[in-house]
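seq as requested:
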Amino acid sequence: MDDSTFDSSPELRELYQEVIFDHYRRPRHFGHLAQANRSAEGHNPLCGDRIELDLQVGSDGRIDDVAFSGEGCAISTASASLLTEAVKGRRVEEALALFERMHGALVAGDPSADAALGKLAVLEGVKQFPARVKCAMLAWHTLRNALTQTAHVASTEDPSERGS
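struct tokens:
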């Protein structure tokens, strides 16, 4: 799906906005996991969004449970909520591949990544607002850190993530 879909279809754009606002108002999997065995924090210093992500990864490498907490804008919160629904039940490798698809679609402009997003395509509208892409990607960078057990706080302003 490319940007022209959002430009030419007000009905689709409105539906996507409704989904995002629903996830903002009623975030799924919000809170902390008592039995988390992987966790990470993320921060977007440009707008102040903060997230904590807890994962319970089973011995088989499957994400058995996931939760997030924190404070952020509608896009940041909705993205984290959508992320929790998308990764629960997936294997770690699948979740990392999903991060790569999100990054490809929202940051790198990879059309092949766009097609593979499924329900997460609702976040593609943020591409029209480049400053909001970092809001949408914060939870995904935090997920990558939790899955790879990276100790530092995920940030939309990490030198290694310039342009991400």
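Residues 1-8, 159-164 have pLDDT under 50 and may be disordered.
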